[in-house]
């Protein structure tokens, strides 16, 4: 079953002219990850963040047909410049997409980061759609995120991962939960303490709970439930911000975390 957002993505993807990367679509600033931003923090007010993340001048979505395809093309596909040097398109566009995005790609390429693969019940999560893996050079918190359009028990589920360790910020590195990171970079975002005080009428419930993932890791999960029934599960693990969300509360709930884990691997090139 596809949710409305996936259907919209499918329409957009069908209109894309394939150039360079698998499915590269420039979007306008006004439409930047609109569904996710508007749904997660619909009325967030101006704030003075303790850790300031600069807003990139521009952004782009890259669509891929598999996780392996995404990591290979993001990290290793290059082109020859007029000066004869070899460039990676995202790293070259540092001024447009921001240094954090370029640093993320460079860290993947240099193997400071491993590729992250979501698992459910001990198996790689099944993806759905023609190009179910999406790299957004700027999304939540102005950071780059990898989106995985998946299915669990026949229900659409989106998994989002951001390599926040790339920031190399001491306060971020010391954070023990998604909520702690959120308070550093977006202190007016919905929390268990403020979602009733601010105009966050779209939220019926926001709370944090200690849970355990399928690999036995203890995590603090920030759980947000929209008035329309959509549920978000946010957590911080191994230098990654991880979000799971979907519309079916019978699947997207605390019990899902017990079945879920993220495994990391070094991407192996064909000659390795």
Q: Your description of this structure?
A:
With 272 residues, this protein is of the alpha+beta class. Helices cover 24% and strands 30% of the residues. Strands 1, 2, 7, 8, 9, 10, 11, 12, 13 and 14 form a ten-stranded antiparallel beta sheet that branches. The model is unreliable at 1-44 (pLDDT under 50).
- Strand element count: 15
**Rounded radius of gyration (Å):** 18 Å
How many individual helices? Answer: 9
Beta content = 25-35%
The SSE order reads HEHEHEEHHHEEEEEEHHEEEEHE
The helical percent reads: 10-25%
Q: What is the straight-line distance between the termini?
A: 38 Å
Oligomer: single chain
Query: What is the general shape?
Result: globular
Average residue-wise pLDDT:
80
What summary fits the major beta sheet? 10 strands, antiparallel
- What class would the helix/strand composition place it in? alpha+beta
Low-confidence stretches: 1-44
Fill in the keyword field for this structure:
272 residues; alpha+beta; ten-stranded antiparallel β-sheet; three-stranded antiparallel β-sheet; 15 strands; globular; disordered N terminus
Question: What's the structural blueprint in terms of helices and strands?
Answer:
Layout lengths: L3 H11 L9 E3 L7 H7 L19 E5 L2 H10 L2 E2 L5 E2 L1 H4 L1 H4 L1 H11 L5 E6 L2 E2 L1 E2 L5 E4 L8 E8 L2 E8 L7 H5 L3 H8 L17 E10 L5 E9 L4 E7 L2 E7 L7 H6 E6 L7
Helix pairs in contact: 3-6
Brief account:
This protein is α+β, with helices and mostly antiparallel strands and 272 residues long. It has helices at residues 4-14, 34-40, 67-76, 89-92, 94-97, 99-109, 170-174, 178-185, 254-259, and strands at residues 24-26, 60-64, 79-80, 86-87, 115-120, 123-124, 126-127, 133-136, 145-152, 155-162, 203-212, 218-226, 231-237, 240-246, 260-265. The protein is 24% helix and 30% strand.
């Amino acid at each position: 079953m596809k949710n409305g957002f996936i259907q919209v993505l499918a329409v957009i993807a069908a209109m894309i002219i394939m150039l360079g990367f698998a499915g590269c679509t420039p979007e306008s600033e006004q439409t930047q990850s609109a569904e996710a931003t508007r749904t997660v923090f619909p009325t967030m007010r101006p704030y003075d963040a303790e850790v300031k993340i600069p807003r990139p001048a521009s952004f782009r979505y890259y669509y891929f047909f598999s996780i392996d395809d995404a990591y290979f093309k993001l990290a290793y596909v290059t082109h020859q410049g007029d000066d004869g040097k070899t460039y990676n398109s995202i790293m070259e566009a540092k001024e447009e997409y921001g240094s954090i995005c370029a640093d993320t790609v460079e860290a993947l390429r240099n193997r400071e980061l491993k590729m992250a693969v979501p698992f459910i019940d001990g198996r790689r999560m099944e993806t759905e759609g023609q190009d179910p893996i999406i790299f957004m050079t700027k999304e939540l918190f102005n950071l780059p995120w990898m989106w995985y359009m998946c299915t669990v028990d026949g229900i659409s589920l989106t998994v989002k991962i951001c390599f926040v360790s790339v920031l190399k910020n001491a306060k971020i590195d010391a954070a023990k939960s998604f909520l702690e990171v959120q308070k550093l970079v977006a202190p007016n975002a919905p929390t268990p303490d403020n979602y009733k005080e601010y105009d966050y009428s779209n939220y019926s419930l926001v709370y944090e709970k200690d849970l355990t993932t399928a690999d036995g890791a203890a995590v603090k999960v920030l759980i947000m439930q929209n008035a329309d029934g959509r549920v978000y599960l946010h957590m911080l693990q191994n230098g990654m911000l991880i979000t799971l969300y979907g519309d079916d509360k019978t699947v997207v709930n605390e019990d899902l975390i017990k079945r879920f884990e993220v495994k990391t691997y070094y991407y192996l090139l064909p000659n390795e």
